[in-house]
Amino acid sequence: MASTVTPEAERLAEELVKRLGEDPLTPRQLAAELTGEEASAALIGAFDAALSRTAAADESDQLDEALWGRAPSDRELALARRASYATREDALRNALADALTREQAATRLGITPQAVSKRVASGGLIALRRGRVSRLPAWQFYEDGTLPGLKQLIAAYPGGALSLTIWATSPTPDLDGSTPARALARRGGVSRVLEAARVLTPAAW
């Protein structure tokens, strides 16, 4: 008997056609396409929604509604995921608005573009990617160098490059209303920022 096509499956099919077309692909070709750098947030979100629905259908344990409240419907979950991915796309767009190219970063730091890439690889700088475009968020740079304690912060922070950028440029009460990026440039700021970063949990990002 044919399976019922769910809204999540329909959305996933539409995104796959947009990305891959109608031509048949081998499993390896499909995997290569889906894990490529240009895989869009919309496609990733569609996969997430479809897999989550499957997992929910297979889940045998039911939460106690008296304790946890009513479980969200499939539509509510789908809308929440779409909102989440839209929020991420907006945050990425904002983070890239004043970001530096590798060449611009090299000029500012007085090093070669290759040296910039090595710093990113070694955790001395962070870079954000959107498709094939890679940029270095501007908050990392201070005067003719990088912020004091930047490499330590990158190592201590529990999230990825985008969430670190959002956190570093957002005022926080842990730093008296200052942003972590501004606090790093102040006397004694490195230890305070690192302490604030270490109390964060990976689940929050």
Spell out the key features of this protein:
205 residues; mainly alpha; two-stranded antiparallel ribbon; 11 helices; 57% helix; 5% strand; flat
Topology:
Blueprint (H helix, E strand, L loop, with lengths): L6 H14 L6 H8 L6 H18 L6 H4 L5 H24 L4 H8 L3 H10 L5 E3 L2 E3 L5 E2 L2 E2 L3 H7 L4 H8 L11 H5 L4 H10 L7
Antiparallel strand pairs: 1-2, 3-4
Question: Could you explain the architecture of this structure?
Answer:
The chain has 205 residues and is mostly helical. The chain folds into 2 domains: 7-57 and 71-96, no CATH class; 98-204, no CATH class. Helix content is 57%, strand content 5%. Strands 1-2 form a two-stranded antiparallel ribbon. The protein has a two-stranded antiparallel ribbon with strand order 3-4. Strand 1 (128-130) and strand 2 (133-135) form a beta hairpin.
The helix/strand order is HHHHHHHEEEEHHHH
Structural class: mainly alpha
Integer-rounded radius of gyration: 21 Å
What is the topology, as strand order, of the major beta sheet? 1-2
Number of helices: 11
Q: What's the number of structural domains?
A: 2
Instruction: Indicate the percent of residues in helices.
Output: 55-70%
Question: What is the 3D form?
Answer: flat
Write down how many β-strands occur, each being a DSSP E stretch of 2 or more residues: 4
Instruction: Report strand %.
Output: under 5%
Give the N-to-C terminal Cα separation. 42 Å
Mean pLDDT: 79
Unreliable segments (pLDDT under 50, ≥5 consecutive)? none
Characterize the biggest β-sheet.
Answer: 2 strands, antiparallel
